[in-house]
Amino acid sequence: MEENKKIKNQLTKKDIFQTFIFSNFQQASFNYERIHALAFCVDMIPTIKRVYKKKEDQIAALKRHNTFFNVTPAFCGPVIGLTSALEQAKSQGEDIDVSTINSLKVGLMGPLCGVGDPVMWGTLRPILAALGATLALQGSWLGPLIFFLVFNIIRLGIKWYGLKLGLSEGMSLVQELSGNFLKKLTEGATVLGLFIMGVLVNKWTTIKVPLVVSKTTFNGKTTITTIQNILDQLCPGLLSLGLTLLMMYLLKKRVSPILLIFILFGVGILGYAFGILK
Amino acid sequence: MSTFQIILVFLWSSIVGCGSVLDEWQTHRPLIACSVMGLILGDPIKGVVLGGTLELIALGWMNVGAAQSPDSALASTISTILVIVGHQSITKGIAIALPVAAAGQVLTVLARTFTVVFQHASDKEVEKANFGAIEWLHFSALIVQAFRVSIPTTLVAVFVSPVMVQNALNSLPEVVTGGLAVAGGFIVTVGYAMILNMMYVKYLMPFFYLGFVLSGYLKLSLLAFGAVGLILALIYVQLDPQFSKDKIQSSSVATTSEADLSEDELDD
């Protein structure tokens, strides 16, 4: 570990900033063969240009980074920073294997996707989008503005500090990632995300079943009991929960989401036609 | 629609197309795509309301790994044009958006398969350490994604007349439009299910049910529920035994692996 502290950062501020700008186009050349391979190669260009002067070294470095890569875009910073630190160390004569660089990159993909996907797509975006949409439904421009600004400020922060963290920490970052911090972050985000999803399932799903079960006249008052009344007495929103759980099950069975959407449309039309749903 | 508006529609839908592949600035989300499109078409309020409505439906549409979700980009741009220029209701906007999202999904898959060409071209430039060409190949692949959304959107903007849209939609029977409105109330469960499947951790699922039950009985705003959720998350992480007993756990793992080993030896 001490050896790595000796490695000098050769990148200029401009190089780091350029890498950061490039990292904001992580999916520009997204392709089904190697996903972000070309993007990662481009992310490394400022580093490669700075530290390798011989053409064959440049080619070798470009080649090893034009390979399969895929991490939640907002969380690619630490890998780019770390890989840049490793390349710098290698160019300064450190004995770093090509396979070490590759296996660290691949090794980081798993944990970073593991944190990135639930934090960005499972927690941050749905919660901010839900908040923005509530405002937007009333015709307020604050909705899209809040969503856009808050999401992007957080996203850019994660990207910039992730990159800096990867660069400055170098090898010791690997310890950090295997430690408790990311685990805690993922678990905390999952608790928050699941809780909010529970709230949303109930709040924003409307299923009304006005089907009449019984009609009793007592003391001149007619009480109409519908299926909806019974279900609401058990627990409000029970049908929404049941439908959500059913959808989860079907998605796990690899039924395509768009097919499910069309099936639900069919259910809606049939239910409406027969007066079961309203 | 004026020529100037059509140019703006083309430019904005190109940005939306780039956004849908980059997934960075979120310009492809209905909340932003529809709102700006509404502004261009001269009805910002209707755009925002449609954006909010579609956003709730599309809440769980996300690309995890290499898997594709329904396409919110094309759905947003085209439905906004038809709702505002074709004078349609928000509900009918949803009915338009969903088939378009399915078509957009197919186009996305095609575009992301086509970009393999750029990837292969880059291999040749890497051999020559031609930095400029590598960068150019990377960024120019975005054009494919921009056109994927902007060409169909602009075609709709230019060729589809409001009267055509109106006639087509008015010819739908009442059962269909009413049914679509009903289905609009619960179609969102597919999106919820997608998020939930991604976040599914069995021992944390009680928090999902807690949120569900609380929102059934408490009339709190979403922000208040968010605060409650955040507090729950902080408390849970602090109390979670797996973060305080790491050393004990690792030593117990070591002993079990030894036990496994001795068992294997016995089998031999």
Keyphrases for this structure?
heterodimer, A: 278 residues, mainly alpha, elongated, disordered N terminus, B: 268 residues, 14 helices, 80% helix, 0% strand, flat, disordered C terminus
Topology (SSEs and partners):
The complex is a heterodimer of chains A (278) and B (268).
Chain A: H1 2-5, H2 13-23, H3 37-51, H4 55-65, H5 77-91, H6 98-137, H7 142-169, H8 172-178, H9 180-203, E1 212-218, E2 221-226, H10 227-234, H11 238-252, H12 257-273
Antiparallel strand pairs in A: 1-2
Helix pairs in contact in A: 2-3, 3-4, 3-5, 5-6, 5-7, 6-7, 6-9
Chain B: H1 3-22, H2 30-41, H3 44-57, H4 72-84, H5 90-114, H6 116-127, H7 131-159, H8 162-170, H9 174-184, H10 188-199, H11 205-217, H12 222-239, H13 241-244, H14 246-267
Give a structural overview.
The complex is a heterodimer of chains A (278) and B (268). In chain A, 70% of the residues lie in helices and 5% in strands. Chain A has 278 residues and is mainly alpha-helical. In chain A, strands 1-2 form a two-stranded antiparallel ribbon. In chain A, strand 1 and strand 2 form a beta hairpin. In chain A, helix 5 packs parallel to helix 7 (142-169) and helix 6 (98-137) runs antiparallel to helix 7 (142-169). Chain B is mostly helical and 268 residues long. Residues 247-268 of chain B have low confidence and may be disordered. At the A-B interface, helix 3, helix 4, helix 6, helix 7 and helix 9 of A face helix 1, helix 2, helix 3, helix 5 and helix 6 of B.
